[in-house]
Amino acid sequence: MFDRCIYFNTTALARQLDRVWTAAFQPFGLTPPQGFMLRAVLARPGLLQSELADELKIARATATRGLDGLEARGLIVRTKSTGDKRESLITPTAEAIAIKDALNAASGAVTQRLQGVFGDQVFAGFVEQAKAIAAKLE
User: Fold this and answer.
1) Is there a contact between 70 and 34 (Cβ–Cβ < 8 Å)?
2) What distance in Å separates the CA atoms of residue 114 and residue 110, rounded to the nearest whole number?
3) Can you say whether the dihedral through the CA atoms of 12, 13, 18, 24 is positive or negative?
4) Long-range Cβ contacts of 17-20 (<8 Å, 24+ apart)
5) DSSP three-state, residue 48
6) Which residues partner with 48 through β-bridges?
7) SS3 content of the chain, % helix, strand, coil (to 5)
């Protein structure tokens, strides 16, 4: 019935991938959105909250909620930007920096596992197609 439905099939895939990423980030006490958010902050300490939202392709309110959780866990600190008082600079704490390598390794292991399941070409092609489709819908 839904064989040709992009919504149904991408949502089904998203649920399966969510289970995989949940297991990967569970040892850190993070949800997949929190894990990816923290990885972005660790990669670019001091980025603005709006830059983080843009990078993750999420609404600013969604970024705020995710950052609230990371801040409550003591993994990030937000400070007001000197340029725009409505903006916050996000920096990782020492606790976050301490788990950076393990967090990236867990994420890398999932990526390698998925590449092994699909094959490198199919995996890379799918990621590129997904990005291209998303860009067209913006």
Assistant:
1) yes
2) 6
3) positive
4) 20/110, 20/113, 20/114
5) strand
6) 89
7) 70, 10, 20
Whole-prediction pTM:
0.90
Tens-place pLDDT, residues 64-120: 999 999 999 999 999 987 777 778 899 999 999 999 999 999 999 999 999 999 999
47's tokens: 């980025």
Answer for the pair 90, 67: CB distance below 8 angstroms, yes or no.
yes
Query: Looking at 66-118, which runs of residues are DSSP E strands?
Result: 76-80, 88-92
* DSSP-assigned letter for residue 76: E
Place of tokens 């819908």: 137
Provide the edge-to-edge strand list for the sheet that holds 88-92: 47-48, 88-92, 76-80
Share of the chain above pLDDT 70, in %: 100
pLDDT band at 3 (very low <50, low <70, confident <90, very high): confident
Contact 32, 25 (CB under 8 A): yes
Exposure string for 33-59, b = 16+ CB within 10 A, e = fewer: bbbbbbbbbbeeeebbbebbbebbebe
Centre a 10 Å sphere on the Cβ of residue 17 and count the other Cβ atoms it contains: 13
